Amino acid sequence: MLTTACVALSSLTFILGLALAWALKGALDGTLAGALARAPWHRPTLPEGRWEDEATFTTLHIAAMAAPALRAGLNRDSARKAVRHLHTLLGTHAVAITSTDAALAWDGPCTDDVLTYAHATLAAGRAQVFAGEPYGAVVVPLTVDGTVVGALAAFDDEVSAALVRTVTEVARWVSGQLELADLDASRRRALEAEMRALRAQISPHFVYNALTTIASFVRTNPRRARELLLDFADFSRYALRRAHDFTTLADELTCVDRYLLLERARFGDKLRFSMQVAPEVLPVPVPFLCLQPLVENAIKHGMRGQGGRGEVRVVVRDAGPEAHITVEDDGAGMDPECARRMLDDDPAREGSGIGLANVDLRMRQIYGDGYGLVVETALGAGTKVRLRVPKTQLSSL
Known about the structure:
Elements: H1 2-26, H2 32-38, H3 51-70, H4 76-90, E1 94-99, E2 103-107, H5 114-124, E3 128-130, E4 136-144, E5 147-156, H6 161-217, H7 222-239, E6 246-248, H8 249-267, E7 271-277, E8 285-287, H9 292-302, E9 310-319, E10 322-329, H10 336-344, H11 356-367, E11 374-377, E12 383-390
Parallel strand pairs: 7-9
Antiparallel strand pairs: 1-2, 1-5, 3-4, 4-5, 6-8, 9-10, 10-12, 11-12
Helix pairs in contact: 1-3, 1-6, 3-4, 6-7, 6-8, 7-8
Organism: Nonomuraea zeae
Catalytic activity: ATP + protein L-histidine = ADP + protein N-phospho-L-histidine
EC number: 2.7.13.3
């Protein structure tokens, strides 16, 4: 749902950008024409019929420079970075951006009345025009999801109908960027909630089993019990820490190694395990806790067949721009339709596949649908889970 909303808002932003371009072209005599005349890239002699094309390009170019700052949300720093581009876009005497209770940033000499004008505009909930000496003002509310969060104010010596239309369109575009910033924040909160759910899934049954196993060595082999306690501490420190979205593949494999030491202590020789890793991919950034749930799932299913015995194999290969990871067990396997249901399940209520749907969902959200888990399985044929990770880290979500 978040992905769909993001696409819809991105499309809205593009449409608003085009609408903004055409609105500005209609007001070139009072706003953008002045900006172009002062801009360093202005070309005073254009071929006939090219003026409109130049205006459209310049409008969208300036808007693109302001967008990254606005996508950080409405605050003093983002307003300060965006306001100078909006000033160039409008070509007025001055431009200011306010929140609901403070003037955040301005470019050009604004009057002391900017906050008074903003409060009146926010109270009215629509664009307002204010006469003033020596400069009048057009002030338009900025909204996020229907809620007024601030205002955009443009000051000039002559307030025309064209200027009102232009400032209104620019404010709509700014509001669209702030909507996307709010959506990004909501997405990050959702991912953090999913991470907390994944940790909660790992903790209860694994902690109980690990501590029970360690307790069994306390009297018979105290040294072994101490070693396992240290391994358990290392695993817990990694798995339960407040982590960023990404870690390195080397750290993730270390976490898997600590987990396997505890499971080997529990199952003894019944559990066989092998790991083959290409050293070139160890620094590759991967989503935090993307491998341990797959190994845990493989052990759970791998130990079901062959009299409670099983083998788990992890292979990490260098595949050019990607790292390819497979986690395979030789257990009882499952019906492919069952595996499909596991991936489609709600990650918050995992049943037969601990963390599997959660990892699949996070991979798709971070890298795109083409990077979801691929599960190969059949009854009596074991299970293999494939994972692809691009070597270039995307922005953290």
